[in-house]
Structures are given as C-alpha cells and as structure tokens.
User: Which sequence fits this backbone?
C-alpha cells in the first residue's frame, strides 16, 4: 500500500523478513538531502518519555533516497484526544513539559537565525501572493520583524511535533515524521502543539465535539502554565506564541484552496490579538 505525506514523500507499507514496516521515499531528487537529515535526527534524537520507530535500512530507488522503519500499530494523539481520560491526558502533557522545561539556557545567536528565516518566509509569501497581501499578514510580518528573539532556548527538537506526528501504542508515545528544522529548540515543538491545541490546525476540516474542545483547552492550559512557571516564563511563552505566528505565515505559500487560506488569515488575527494584548496567562 502506498500513501503520500504532506511533504510529498511517498510512504509505502512493506515487509522485511516477514516484519511489517514503513518505507519513506523522497518526493524528488532535490528532497534527498532533507530526507537524509530527517532520518539522522530520527536515529540520533533521544527524548526522555518518548520512543522513535527503529530505522531498519536506507538506500536509493531510481535515484530517490529512502529509509525504512518499523511499523507501529497505534493511533495518533490527534485521534486519541477526543476520548482520552483527563488523568491520562495530564500524564501525556507531563511527558512534554518535563522535557521542555529542563532546558533553560538562552541562545544569543538565535535572533539572526529567526530574522533570516522571516526574510525567507516573506519572500515566498510575496512570490505566492504577488504582492497582494491581506493587511493581517502584512501586520504579522511587521510584528515579527520588530521582535527581539532574546528568549530563545536551544535544545533537541523534533521539528514538526503536531498531534498527528505522535503515536500512542499501549500507553507508549512514539514520535514520527521528524523534520529538519531551521533551528533546534523545544520552543519550536511547543509552538506546533499549540498550533493544534489552541488553533485546531489538525482539526480544521473536521467536526469538533465538546469532548475534544475541553481536552484541547486542558492541554493548552497545562502546557502554558508549565512554561509560565519557568524563570522568566512569560517572556519565554511570549516567544513561543511569536513562533506560532511564524508557523502560520510559513504555511501560506503552500495553502491549497480558499478554506485553508481563510483559516490561516483568521488564525493569524487571533494570534496577533493574543500577543498584542498580552493575553498569555
């Protein structure tokens, strides 16, 4: 069976020695190096409380790089959220906050890296929109240009820690679909979790039950409270929300259809209101 991931990579369910596994194949030759970096991160990254799928082999098919990993028969955190017991949800969130809050050293060089990334994002947005930007998008870019990025913490990082990239099997948490992030920080991962928990990105085309909304609110509150409890926690959380804002800007050049475009624009307005009014507590 073959599937296609968000990056365009092909995902193939196959077998090695009678063992079910997943093969991830680069979408095109230009993606080979990025997929190699993702495989290296999956092999090397060790985060307490989380497991990764073991990489079984790698190589090339018609010049396209691939790697094969074990198949985990579990459900994504996004799927489990609606019916998860609140006590179980608290245990899951603690796995994140125990790791995130253990790193506390600021990286003075991060500011230039984030500024360069913003320039890249702005260029891609202008190419896609041909200079015809919604005012909220222009305002978001200006807000991020003026931000100092003084409270960025360097640490190991998954790179794309959405709830769809976390599997649960028999109470164990597995991280999948690692991404070669432009910068490694748990704050990047926290921002991706808030992208789902507060702004429902993974659920944008799905019906949202009251059970799901309650659990998402609990998830958001426990995550942000743990960050606020850190020394200078409000400044750190403020930085995380600026990263959330940057995340939604990054999606714009790849958004398909008017629904996604409206969703992104409306969400950008909500994030900016939260940041400007300092509604982080």
Assistant:
């Amino acid at each position: 069976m073959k599937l296609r991931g968000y990056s365009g990579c092909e995902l193939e369910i196959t077998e090695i020695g009678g063992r079910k596994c997943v093969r991830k194949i680069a979408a095109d030759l230009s993606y080979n190096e990025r997929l190699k970096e993702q495989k290296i991160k999956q092999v090397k990254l060790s985060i307490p409380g989380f497991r990764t799928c073991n990489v079984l082999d790698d190589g090339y098919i018609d010049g396209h790089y691939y790697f094969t990993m074990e198949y985990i028969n579990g459900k994504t955190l996004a799927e489990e959220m609606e019916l998860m017991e609140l006590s179980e949800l608290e245990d899951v969130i603690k796995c994140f906050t125990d790791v995130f809050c253990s790193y506390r050293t600021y990286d003075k060089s991060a500011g230039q890296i984030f500024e360069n990334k913003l320039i890249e994002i702005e260029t891609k947005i202008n190419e896609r929109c041909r200079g015809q930007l919604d005012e909220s998008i222009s305002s978001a870019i200006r807000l991020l240009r003026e931000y100092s990025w003084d409270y960025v913490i360097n640490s190991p990082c998954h790179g794309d820690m959405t709830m769809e990239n976390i599997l649960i099997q028999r109470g164990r948490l597995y991280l999948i679909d690692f991404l070669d992030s432009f910068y490694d920080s748990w704050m990047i991962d926290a921002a991706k979790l808030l992208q789902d928990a507060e702004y429902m990105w993974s659920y944008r085309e799905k019906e949202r039950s009251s059970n799901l909304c309650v659990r998402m609110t609990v998830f958001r509150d426990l995550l942000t409270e743990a960050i606020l409890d850190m020394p200078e926690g409000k400044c750190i959380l403020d930085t995380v929300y600026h990263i959330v804002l940057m995340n939604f800007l990054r999606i714009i050049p790849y958004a398909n259809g008017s629904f996604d475009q409206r969703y992104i624009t409306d969400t950008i307005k909500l994030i900016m209101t939260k940041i400007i009014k300092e509604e982080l507590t």
